[in-house]
Amino acid sequence: MTDAAKPIDVTGIGGGMGPQPQPCQLVIFGVAGDLSWRKLLPAVYNLNVDSNLPSHFSVVGFGLPSSGESPADPDDYIRKRARDGIEKFSRRHLDEGHFADFARALFFVPGSFNDAGAYQALKARLEALDQQFGVPASRVYYLAVPPGVVPDCVSHLKAAGMIAQPDEVNAFTRVIVEKPIGHDLASARTVMDDVAVAFHENQTYRIDHYLGKETVQNLMVLRFANSIFEPLWNASHIDHVQITVAEEEGLAQYGPDGQMLATRAGYYEKIGALRDMVQNHILQILCMVCMEPPWSLGPDIVRDAKAGVLRCLHRPTPAEVDKYVVRGQYIEGNVHGQRVPGYRKEVREAFELMKKPLPPESVHSTTETYVAMKLFVDNWRWAGVPFYLRTGKRLPKRVSEVAIQFKNVPNVLFNAHPDVPLEPTLLALRVQPEEGISMRLASKLPGARLKIYPVKMEFTYGGAFGAQSTPEAYERLLLDVMAGDATLFMRRDAVELAWEFCMPILDRWAALRVRDLPEYQCGTWGPVEADRIIHADGRHWRTP
Amino acid sequence: MNAPALLGESVPVSIGSIEAELKRRRDAVQSDAAEPLQVVRMATLVVFTDSLDRAVAIDAELPAITAVHPARVVLLVGEAGAKDVAMIGSIKVRPLHQSGSRVTISEQVTLVAGGPVALRLPSVVRGLVIGDLPVNLWWATNTPPPMGGQLEAELAELAQQVVYDSLGWPDPARGFLATATWLDQLDTPLPGGRWRTGSDLSWRRLKYWRRLLAQTLHPGSAPGCAASLTEIRVEHGPHAVGQAWMLACWLCLQLGWHIQGGKTQGGTELTWKCQLPNGGTGWVRVVRQDQGPPEICRVRLACEVGGAPGAMVLAVEGPQRLAQTVEGSDVQPRTLTVPPLTLAEVIGRQLNDRDRDRLFRETMARARVMGQSVLDH
After folding, report:
1. Which of B123, B151, B155 is best to mutate for the A interface (most A CBs within 10 A)?
2. CA atoms of A260 and A255, how far apart (whole Å)
3. How are beta strands A139-143 and A24-29 bridged, if at all?
4. What would the pLDDT profile of B146-183 be if each residue is shown by its tens digit?
5. Do A420 and B195 touch (CB under 8 A)?
6. What is the CATH number of domain B205-339+358-376?
7. Taking residues B357-372, what's their average pLDDT?
8. pTM strictly above 0.80
9. 3-class DSSP state for residue B93?
10. Which domains does chain A have, with CATH numbers?
């Protein structure tokens, strides 16, 4: 590779070598859970394979297996669990040599999150491992636990004397907190206050894995490292923006015989699509699209720029919520050629599976599985540009994309035919799957006659850099925490601002007390009411 | 398994993992390629057919079609009469071009379903459509699209252009009647600025007949011929009645003939009585020959030639030539070269052509009138 082709480190950390994680122990609370199994342990394994981990490093899991019983050989238990997760979900195939090296530094301390004695055992094990691995008492606590458990974990950590001072550099303590952060503004503040009892803001890393996606990070590079986009990135040239976060899955996973195997009903019934997706992922992506150029890449400078967008979001009035926000719930339909049940039926079956009584409010659940909305960013750059957001479950494909549609050319010359208008120029940023960028342009078809046809220029990370070269979001984010780089994590003010935007919607919905939501069949792109929001403006939802 | 072996090979897949399997195949091909693999696609081409035999024939044509119009192809086979069996899927990654070390490919997904399960095909297609590019539906059955029921309606909902072929329609009168109305609905602008269009491959095949007829009847080359025309006779081979019908409709439209009534005769001939612009009566006859290829073979125009009653005859002169002669004259024929109109060529060109063809619409409106007149008889 020539010097000109070397990747440029824009983080400022590591002198051009990318973020440099510092020696530490990664302590995963809830290591026996789904997130660790699917994402975290495979991510650490891949970081190990890529030589991105510090030499002085270990992973310690904490918690209890789902059986609730302590395994006979805890370390063996977690190593087997990690092996299984890597085999099933890792972007790299399991290599025995690498796995042996990874497993050598993987440990498990069984214990309940509300058992003070367990924290003492954890502390003792960590201190022993500090000695064994030469770690200078630095810790990253990853709280991969349900939100209700977070206060217990934090208070016990503090009581056990397991948290360093915030200004401590050599033996730092950092905490990673997963979403959801609260279920409304007040509860979010409570959750953050609970964490703040023990951890300073600069020790707290609120993770939104979407921000670790290459395409999301590349948004800043696309905008601010290319000269052609930024001059056009405003209301003068952009017609509208669409953000789609679509999921194929519903509440449950089914076996080949149609039996429900697992479900998120207990969680999702209380949350819904607005809290699950819009308040965090979608608004964070929106910030990256809309932010003003930060004057440096310092974490707080970038986060200031993002918070600036959230401050400018137009807070909808109740009438505007009714007009511009649509929620929906999926009903029975076809997905991939299979008949699948509607949401309410899935909820009923899920509670039967969990052997729990169906809560009264779930009998005729009004939890939204789909949200679409039109919003505006009230600042000079984006004045009058509509942003159409939609997210939902049981949609035709799993895809997350941002589409920036540029304004039409005038209706003369090539766009003079009103029956068949030209497709406008469109820049699409695909967050998942197959991260990449595409641009739709109008092109003349070869031949004697003048015929114009839309063509698409596409770049995918996998195609350009190799299928296995693109790190998973969690890999990047874990490294950033170890390196002390909070750029891609949500600051407290951003979380509060995002909730402030969502609260008028939640309040209006609560006030309406509807008995039924607009319905959409599984495997379709949402309720017709969502189409009306955008059709009213003479636009339509694109197919991602 | 090495990469070249992956190209062109059809692999069974579970319906829920089609995209993942396509990606796996692309990655496998990519792993042996020196340059980034290029997946070429101008559109998503959804092909629906109701017979496995026809699907096999279409599958054989698809490499040639995608050479003209690169697309992700989703080939759907829905056998209505078959038992209610589970949907079966397969994928194929085809080499398209190879220039030096650069490899370009196209992708194909084939889905087979029988009975009521076929109605679920659109749910799979929705997830396979390539975003931001046109979606074309090729309705490759002998059933006119508006008679295709819920399945056609759901597939057409996804498409920007619906391509069908009136060649082989068993009941052209009802077919044209329904299709003309359906085309009007298809042309109605959709909310949000979306638009759709419909195209008949038979109309595209008529291009050279229309060109030769227009030149034959041009006042500059045959003064008085068009004005004196009293009978149009279109002869066609088996299964090409729709094509002949449409040519007759187009001629009536161009000549300003108004349909007064129509009837079938003996199962081999359709006849319409027309009012001419000069108030006189004209006749249009579409006559099936017992043998021959499924295409128009001859058109006879009874009119004055050189001031005396006579006829112009247009006929197929060879595989790539149409000729026009004056009946009973030994004057050398005027000829028009017709490029090979293979199915791949016709469909490929049509997929590239999304413009609304006003003449086709007007011809279909006339076809509706002629269809109604036959049914009213």
Report:
1. B123
2. 6
3. parallel
4. 999 999 999 999 999 999 999 888 888 999 999 999 99
5. yes
6. 3.30.360.10
7. 93
8. yes
9. strand
10. 3-179 (3.40.50.720), 229-466+487-535 (3.30.360.10)
